[in-house]
Amino acid sequence: MPQKLGFDLPGLAGNLITKLWMLQRTYNWQVIFPDGIGDVPGIWISQYCQDIRFGDYSITEISAVRHGSEQRFYAGLRDIEQVPMSFIMPIDNSVHKYFQDWRKLEVDDDGYFYPKSYYKRDIYVFLFDRSGIQSAKFVLHGCFPRNCPPISLSYYEDSVLRWGIDLLVDYVEESSLIGSVRSAAFNAAGGVINAAKNLLGG
What we know:
The protein is α+β, with helices and mostly antiparallel strands. The chain has helices at residues 42-46, 94-104, 116-119, 177-199, and strands at 3-4, 18-19, 29-32, 49-52, 57-59, 62-67, 70-75, 78-80, 83-88, 121-128, 134-145, 162-168, 171-175. The longest helix is centred in the last third of the chain and has 23 residues, at 177-199.
């Protein structure tokens, strides 16, 4: 339900500004994995991703520097945690093959690592509102697999096979389409108000 803001903009066009509560839901999202890794398209395995968590940046320790009697603190190195995700396994085993091929880009046949620029990739995560409009986009820059866990098979239960993997990431870039539209709307409203004040000699 639209609600009036709790303030008025100098009495000019302020009554036109309302706010609408649009809260994010965790299931309105889509992840897009990169192509060019083996012969399995990234968009194909994206549909099997059921869970992804990222953005857990933490500073491991605070550094201190003394200048005479004063002591100044500054942030230490930022520790970017791994990005865990889980997949349901399709019958063609394409998810497992995709990440196995990705691992082959990291290490050659003699066990030496290739340069990081050779195997790091960007992953895109999109959030949507309840009407299906994109509300935010995250770009996970410089991703590559940290591990390829073994597949556990058992006859004790007949359930969908799930597979978890951790990726390492350089940094996460966030952008918001709705935030950009909102800023543009406020800027436009501000322009109208300023123009009206100028006409009135304010």
